[in-house]
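User: Show me a protein chain along with its predicted structure.
Assistant: Here is one chain, sequence first, then structure tokens.
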Amino acid sequence: MRRADTSGWAALWGPRGKWLAVVLAIVVSGLALALGGASKVNTDPAAALPRGAESATVARLQQRLPSGQLAPALVVYSRDGGLSPQDRASIDADARRLTALAAGGRVPPPVYSDKGDVALLSVPLRGALPLADLTDAVRKVREEAAAGLPAGARAQVTGPAGFKVDLAAVFDGANLTLLAVTASVVALLLLITYRSPWLWLVPLGVIGVADQVAAKIVAVLTRTAGLTVDDSTLGITSVLVFGAGTNYALLLIARYREQLRVHDDRHLAMARAVRSAAPAVLASSATVTLALVTLVLADSPAVRGIGLAGAIGIVTAVCYALLVLPAALVLFGRGLFWPFAPKTGQPDPARDGVWARVGGAVSRRPALMTTVSVAVLAVLGLGVAGLKVGLSQTEQFREKVEAIAGQETLGRAFPAGSAQPLVLISRASAAEEVEAAASRVPGVVRVTPGDRTAEYARADVVLRAEPGTEAAFSAVRALRAAVHAVPGAQAVVGGQPAVDLDERDAATRDQKLIMPLVLGVVLLVLLALLRSVVAAVTLVLTVIASFGASFGAGWFAFRHLFGFPALDLDVPLLSFLFLVALGIDYNIFLATRAREEAAEQGTREGVVTALAVTGGVITSAGVLLAAVFSVLGVLPLITLTQIGVIVGFGVLLDTVLVRSVLVPALVTLLGDRFWWPGDPAAGATPTRTPVRQAEAARP
């Protein structure tokens, strides 16, 4: 073999280079961890809403009104069969005591439902309170409401203040739990994969550091570049770093093990391993990174945050996987693989393993295997029937906290829209005309004038329809049309029902724009890597089919097993992006190896050999990535649970069926046409592949 081909790589991880790489990695990582700081949380309520949305305009205008500076804590009292005179006396006493906690020292009188079984007491709190102080204030409101309440009566605190405090409590420590569970799952699967008492520590340690460095880079950008993130964004970023980073590590270590069977010098073996694995790893990481970057075009701030933070995570992971991990592996020598350390001249057991037999079976009956695979994917895709998209605010969390329970109680006793009224803001000079126009809109129960300044006036609008329903969306559209028509009023409609509508419209627009862009990115990367139109289009079609099957199976499970009422708005787009961008990784790993082998053996034998030598590592990577995404269920958001299930199942399906059966069958059916217009033999190095070299080294 020609040593010049790898002399640069060998020098990088040579006897001195490896130490330099490790020391440099320690210094850079230490500086990032020490100086990165914590992520800045954006407290602007409009920052969490789709850009250009009318509800975002309302959120900003509210800040100019006195009521916009408040976060009410709504105390909901209830008793089955009706509130008793003693209950009412206790509620009146609470109203007097709670003035000490209320902003402005005033609590409006309680409002009773028509049946007299529910009462509502609104306690205004300052919206600018830090979370710790707001939590303390809500705790005191709950204690005061519960104190002296007659037996059998219930008091639940909800409203903006209750929601903010309860949801913060649900997430308290959740990301630390997610990180611990993710690391534990990765450690266990690496230990099973390598069957070595210490090999797993190296990739886990390197990727774990990469995860923390990525988190610090994201934190810096939240303070300097206005990047908006929340707990769910940080959780998804960690999953991406661990999942993708460990996948790259598995491929690199597999190639390193192959080369150790060919070369005595471990530094040269690592240089050859990186040289052969780097194109596939870089192509895979580029696909995921570019796909995530397309999310910056989304209207939803949460989706944009996931795109930017996730891209940073992937770039960090691939840097550590290709620059730091090789040096760390070479540092420990062959003993790192004990008790199954590879020996020079040892044949590759994968050539006669289970994946070699699978590849042989597929190549003998490619048409049958293609038909069966497509039929399985089609059947799974049928599960999408009856799909519903869009969760209300009370449906987005698996845990029913007190704020959600209180809002449900309120919704049962008062008109459905009472718990979440619309906010109508207009010019003060046209307020009466706007309110009159709003009251005439079908579906509006009442319009209640609120506070005003010399410039703007606010009114609360209660709808008859339940928030999040088509009837509510229709009523919001009709209300907006009616108030927009008032001359000179500059009226806008916001509030939670309007937010739901704006977010649904933004999600629909984002899907139509970004999904084709993601496919275009994947196609371009495959064209650049494989130099084959047929191969690129074929592989893209397989991941689309895999997504369709996974999406259908996921919705079937959510409806019949989990009991979820609908998919969250961002789930279709994010699950599509993760499945297509990450799912193509395994096809890239297989196709690049198949191209390499086809140069010597021909397409049919090349894909069988490629499946034989990559099957084990890709299956391990797929199982690990599926497990890591499933860990998203640790966080209490139904959105993350749904993404974890769809992507986790999709990765397994892609690993076990699409990459192992469908793609090899299609390659066999197409033959050399699969590489059109390229030719894998053109420009191929005369150097034998590691498998062939190992065979040649046998006595």
